[in-house]
């Protein structure tokens, strides 16, 4: 008997766990090897660069007072986004990097608010700059087990999903978000080549808040380095897209898409500080959504189907409630001492942009 362990393909991962195949060499007929097809590792490899303008964004706690005494909690943002999406034999990968530039109402450090330094000294700081990154990877159960058991009706696949987020921003809070997620994804088919994905996930976040750092916050109610650490919670991420295939063929250049993410309560907003010791208000369920984006496929319209979605023009509506998990109706980041909202913890805005495929 001889043990054949010379070659292990990706489909033989489980063979490593079960042990190499034992074969009786003298009893097996010798057959000519079949030619191996040269199959690309990635069946889809899509890269895009976008520029977008957010007309009325917010950043919790950052606002200014108008001459008439009203509160301006809005800021414009210009965003440069690089995305990558691929499909391979066992799943998908998605990665995103945003660079966001705010207006003066969301200032960079050393301003602690628009036009104000610590201690109330007037200043005119430039708008802050943020870098935000995200990745998600899925591993399809249909592909792993070489079956169609996880497809039924509109359901196309069930996948394992893992991912993470990170950010850094040069304002006084100086956030340094680090997130890990793990869970499942359910993929459904929609009409007109559309899709819907729903992913229930476990979510764990750590971050940074300059206002919590010792030397700025009161002694005994501060964090030495300002680093916050929240308890794990649930999250649900959804995405959809669909061509408007019911339109007359002569104007069939439009599609819609959208997304929504819900995140559960993650403890006190200044955790690991505790209640009564600077811990702050309990966090709230967060909704970060872009329920509708209308896209015009300029590539197809002007250069033909060969250039479909090589150049897209789009406009969207964005709604973000309890931003970063801060309770918009209770958190001191969101309301003034008298209970008046500073309008910074809910974002409701139009966004427009241009996307180029490369």
Characterise the protein shown here.
The protein has 358 residues and is mainly beta. It has one domain (43-357): Beta Barrel (Outer membrane phospholipase (ompla), Chain C). The chain is 4% helix and 47% strand. It contains three helices and 19 strands. It has helices spanning 13-18, 141-144, 298-303, and strands spanning 2-4, 21-23, 42-57, 64-65, 71-72, 75-88, 91-102, 111-113, 116-117, 129-140, 155-169, 178-190, 194-208, 227-229, 233-243, 254-263, 286-297, 311-321, 347-357. It has a twelve-stranded antiparallel beta barrel. Strand 4 (64-65) and strand 5 form a beta hairpin. The protein is globular and about 65 Å long. It starts with a strand and ends with a strand.
Helical content (DSSP H or I, runs of 4+): under 10%
Please tell me what the overall shape is. globular
Name of the level-1 CATH class: Mainly Beta
- The structural class is mainly beta
Q: Can you list the strand order of the major beta sheet?
A: 3-6-7-10-11-12-13-15-16-17-18-19
Keywords:
two-stranded antiparallel ribbon; 358 residues; 19 strands; 4% helix; disordered N terminus; single chain; 3 helices; 12-stranded antiparallel barrel; mainly beta; Outer membrane phospholipase (ompla), Chain C
